[in-house]
């Protein structure tokens, strides 16, 4: 099973242009924090923010000014950000492709943890074989399978309790050149020693510990959020951190069937706690981001808009796209 920080890309690739979102590392990387910050407040509008404002906001989250500027520059080279200049002042916004990816990713994060899809007792098996000299392609395929909710039961044999969607099939075709076979069927129990059940492809005990750690970390904050006692930079930082932590759960626990899991599985309590913190801090966090940005620009800050988990589930889209422009 992959640990929560082994994920090469937490969001799907897509769009008409090359795009490389930052890798997820142990702790919060400066690029990851930058992407989360921009996604949380500008993914709908792709608002342009002064680089000085971004540096100030990132500094409040523990990123050094030098680290913030480096992160912004690297994200621009990756195609995640688009830059512009007015005199000596630079500004940045999410690229259209990045905004679309982040919107899809936000929907996936919430939808994948909202409820378990009814399971028909069958498994989808993806078997592939790639030569040793195609290691880059093999890593890309494994990363894509992880994102699709698959786990390796054996080397080269990955499984999921749910059907392979047409989009997923197309993505696998692009990565394998046909060196893949997909089956769907029920497990046939055998009494042989060393028998391995499909659910063993996931380290259920480790996933449970991650849920427990999440609940332990964020439960004490929830009453303060409900009482309106968290605002300013603290609200932005907490909202960014809770998203940066929670978004790993759909990879760790891709809606595994509850009938295969221990009683009292913590997926739902974790999702409810995430929503309580993330949604509860939306208004004060948005207010603070607007205030910081206003210090560095004469433009109106109406393009800065926090969204809720309900917005993510419904699908947060670029306003220009939504209006057909």
UniProtKB/TrEMBL annotation:
Domain called Transcriptional repressor PaaX-like C-terminal: residue spans: 202-290
* UniProt-listed InterPro entries: PaaX-like_central, PaaX-like_N, PaaX_C, PaaX_trns_reg, WH-like_DNA-bd_sf
Can you name this protein?
PaaX family transcriptional regulator
Q: Which residues form a coiled coil?
A: none
Q: Which residues form the Transcriptional repressor PaaX-like N-terminal domain?
A: 32-95
Q: Which GO terms describe its biological process?
A: DNA-templated transcription
Ranges for domain Transcriptional repressor PaaX-like central Cas2-like come to: 117-189
């Amino acid at each position: 099973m992959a640990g929560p920080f082994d994920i090469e890309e937490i969001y799907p690739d897509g769009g008409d242009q090359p795009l490389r979102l930052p890798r997820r590392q142990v702790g919060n990387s400066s690029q990851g924090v930058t992407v989360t910050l921009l996604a949380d407040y500008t993914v709908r509008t792709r608002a342009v923010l002064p680089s000085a404002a971004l540096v100030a906001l990132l500094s409040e989250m523990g990123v050094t000014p030098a680290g913030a500027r480096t992160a912004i520059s690297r994200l621009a080279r990756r195609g995640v950000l688009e830059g512009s200049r007015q005199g000596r002042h630079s500004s940045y916004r999410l690229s259209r492709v990045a905004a679309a990816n982040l919107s899809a990713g936000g929907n996936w994060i919430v939808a994948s943890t909202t409820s378990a899809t009814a399971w028909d007792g069958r498994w989808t098996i993806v078997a592939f074989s790639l030569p040793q000299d195609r290691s880059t392609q093999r890593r890309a395929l494994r990363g894509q399978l992880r994102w699709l909710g698959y786990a390796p039961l054996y080397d080269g044999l990955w499984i999921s309790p749910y059907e392979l969607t047409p989009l997923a099939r197309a993505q696998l075709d692009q990565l394998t050149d046909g060196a893949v076979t997909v089956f769907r069927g029920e497990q046939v129990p055998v009494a042989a020693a060393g028998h391995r059940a499909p659910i063993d492809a996931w380290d259920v005990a480790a996933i449970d510990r991650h849920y427990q750690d999440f609940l332990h970390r964020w439960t004490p904050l929830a009453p303060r959020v409900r009482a309106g006692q968290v605002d300013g930079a603290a609200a932005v930082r907490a909202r960014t951190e809770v998203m940066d932590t929670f978004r790993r759960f759909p990879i760790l626990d891709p809606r595994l069937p509850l009938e295969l899991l221990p009683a009292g599985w913590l997926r739902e309590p974790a999702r409810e706690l995430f929503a309580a913190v993330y949604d509860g801090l939306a208004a004060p966090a948005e207010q603070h981001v607007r205030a910081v940005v206003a210090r560095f620009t004469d433009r109106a800050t109406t393009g800065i808009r926090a969204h809720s988990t309900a917005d993510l589930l419904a699908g947060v889209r670029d306003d220009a796209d939504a209006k057909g422009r």
